[in-house]
Amino acid sequence: MISDYFRIVEFRLIDAEIIADKKVSYSEFSPDQGMLRGRLLFVDGSTLEFMEYLHRDQRLKYRFHLIDKNGQMVFRYDNAPHHENSTFPHHKHIANDILESEERNFGYTQGNRTSDM
Fold first, then answer.
1. Are 103 and 90 in contact (CB under 8 A)?
2. For residue range 85-99, what is the model confidence (pLDDT) as tens digits?
């Protein structure tokens, strides 16, 4: 059920010491379908804007956009079908390049924020 995933995400956010502020919305369209959107402000001044649209255990759409404290993009993971590569439609944007990437989820991106910087 989608509400189980939402609870997992909320649990991860409760005690995250690197998060200074958060705004997260959970939309449950049915027991198996929903959307998670939000913005996290980290203590270093960077922000993570994210969206996941899920149906059962499938992530139909996602984007995770990390911006540094100066407003510059650090990375953006998404599965919009606009870049052909071997991991299509999954890819990672960095400053001046598009890289291959596996599918990402909120837990991976939030937990590995600093290693991607």
1. yes
2. 777 888 898 988 888
Instruction: Report the alpha-carbon distance of residue 48 to residue 104 in Å, rounded.
Output: 14
Cα–Cα distance for residue pair 114/117, rounded to 1 Å: 5
Query: Does this model's pTM top 0.85?
Result: no
At 110 the three-state DSSP class reads: helix
DSSP 116: G
Inter-residue contact 76 to 63 (CB < 8 Å): yes
pLDDT band at 107 (very low <50, low <70, confident <90, very high): low
Tell me the chain's radius of gyration from C-alpha atoms. Answer: 14
Residue 19 is inside which H or E element, if any?
strand 19-30
3-state secondary structure at position 57: coil
Cα–Cα distances (Å) from 12 to 43, 75, 84, 94, 97, in that order, read: 16, 21, 33, 26, 31
Q: Say what the alpha-carbon torsion angle 19, 22, 28, 34 is, to the nearest 10 degrees.
A: -60
